[in-house]
Amino acid sequence: KENEAELGRGRVILFFERGEEGMGNIRYLLDHMLAQDTKVAAAHGIHVRPDLPTGVIFSPSGPIMAGATGFTVKIRGRGGHGSRPDLSNNPVDCFVAVYSALMALRVRYVSPFEQLTFSVCTLKGSERGNVIPGEVSFGGTARYYNKAVGQTFIDEFTSILDNVTAAYHCTYETNGMRAGDPTLNNADAGAFARGVIRKYLGEDAVAETTPLMGSESFSLLTQLYPGVMVHLGIGNEGIGSGADLHSEYFDVDEAALALGVAETVGFAVDFIQGDEVFAHTPVRDLDAINSWQNRKA
What is the pTM of this model? Predict the structure, then answer.
């Protein structure tokens, strides 16, 4: 801000999303920007990456973070006593069949050239070993780089639930699954960021690695505007940093933060003072954002 006058013809908008981790508050920011017809020629985001060493930054053209589908499912049967399973309808049996079919989904319905991973992370039934529960609930998450693959997961998962629960004389309900958006870097913006890294940090600072399967709300910005997210290496065995994101052992090599600032500021200044135009076709308009808001709410 102190050097704003030196930027010249452009301006930098600092984008702070309250409750970024899963709260969906980006919808208010995007709604406001679209309503104000805010012009954005380039969007830039940065995220720490513990599996990369301090001193490097990853800036691909294309996928960098996965899309996400969270699911919660409740299967209803008929409870009873563990000594007489014939007098009840155990939804645990139905869940086991659903889970087995779900594990085969990846191979049967998704191309081997596409990425898809999913996990069931919560499971709750009876709290007593001799009581058959009346219902079982489970939940988890799916991740992918192609949103169409996410939709395939939802469609086939729903088909599994429809058919298996019917075969087991159970019913089910879900939270209304939807395919979330992967974070896809604009090709021109990704290349521009790599040039910035080389210019200010050197050729050795340009990392080559794979995208993360985690997800980011920044994905919505890269659909509205030509954008790039870069990953900043923070791994340093010497100080004990490098544990996974969201792990209780997570720590940051603070020496890396200066490099992240250099890349971020370098990107903004060089773009504003240069003549680069990133080719981009927006895939979301105000109506689409509002419909997304309604689904999220």
Answer: 0.85
